[in-house]
Amino acid sequence: MLSGLPPLTLALLLAAGVLLDLLLGEARRWHPLVGFGQLAAWLERRLNKGSWRSARGALAWMLAVLPLSFLAAWLCASGGATGLAAHALTLYFCLGLRSLRDHTLPIHDALTNGDLPRARWLTSRIVSRDTTNAGEADLAKAGAESLLENGNDAVFGTLFCFLLGGGAGALLFRLANTLDAMWGYRNARFDLFGRVAARIDDVLNYLPARLTALSYALLSPGGRLRALRCWHAQAPAWSSPNAGPVMASGAGALGISLGGAAIYEGEVEQRPVLGTGQAAAAGDIRRAWRLVFRTTLLWVFVALGLGIALHLAGVQHA
């Protein structure tokens, strides 16, 4: 592991970062990831043209991610209270647990109150599909899918990389994931330019996604085998090698059906069905949030437990 911190210290900093995110939520002004998104958009406008698009995309990825990751590593290695604070604060800015709750539970509330126009507007803020004429089932499905998939991207993948590389590891993962979300589309504009960003995100997410899928299954006492079966049978058909296991296991754990038809850029896309049982309803958004939250607690307690065990065993550096 690359953080150089004692395992128990690293686990305590992880818990501190999660607690800061739950207490403070997403920074409303001057959020570093918003600034990073603007930098990424600027790089894309200047480099995504002409020939050698894949090479230009690789260069853009390095220019966007590496300097900031090295800066975070330098700050975290400064030692003392400053270095410890840098680890915890970097993790806080990279996490999106509270943000997931704040963006999805209002959809549940709007659907519960019968306010379909508001539910459509709220859902359009977090997904790329067309929600103009979406019904309650479509919006509930979109909200649950977003929670399950982004639980891995915005929370568990970040925690996994924090345990490997401290604040710098968490930042590198989150920046790479952000670039995949911005550039990793299979369309005329991004198919070549965003290919490197998509592949790097696939590699970084491979282990976290499968640990997330396993966690979703373990935290469903009545549906563990169902979640594992859905993961095994349905994930290979999903277009994303990492979102497939996460969403199939999560849908199986909740006992609902996700996937299916969705409208993107004016065209209906028939996606494979994930999970089993009834189509998602408004209440399943809240159930998906609870699953993500319980999984977060599981990861924090496991990290603390391992940290304590390694501390008692005399292991000095993670």
From TrEMBL:
Its transmembrane ranges are 58-77, 154-176, 296-315
Intracellular or extracellular location(s): Cell membrane
Q: Any idea which UniProt keywords this protein has? A: Cell membrane, Cobalamin biosynthesis, Membrane, Transmembrane, Transmembrane helix
Q: What does this protein do?
A: Converts cobyric acid to cobinamide by the addition of aminopropanol on the F carboxylic group.
Q: What is this protein called?
A: Cobalamin biosynthesis protein CobD
Primary place of residence?
A: membrane
Pathway given in the UniProt record: Cofactor biosynthesis; adenosylcobalamin biosynthesis
User: Which gene name belongs to this protein?
Assistant: cbiB
Which source organism does the UniProt entry give?
Answer: Massilia aerilata
> What PANTHER family does this protein map onto?
COBALAMIN BIOSYNTHESIS PROTEIN CBIB
Q: Does the keyword Transport apply?
A: no
Membrane disposition: Multi-pass membrane protein
For the keyword Cell membrane, the answer is yes
Similarity annotation = Belongs to the CobD/CbiB family.
Q: Which InterPro entries does the entry mention? A: Cobalamin_biosynth_CobD/CbiB
Q: Which HAMAP family match?
A: CobD_CbiB (MF_00024)
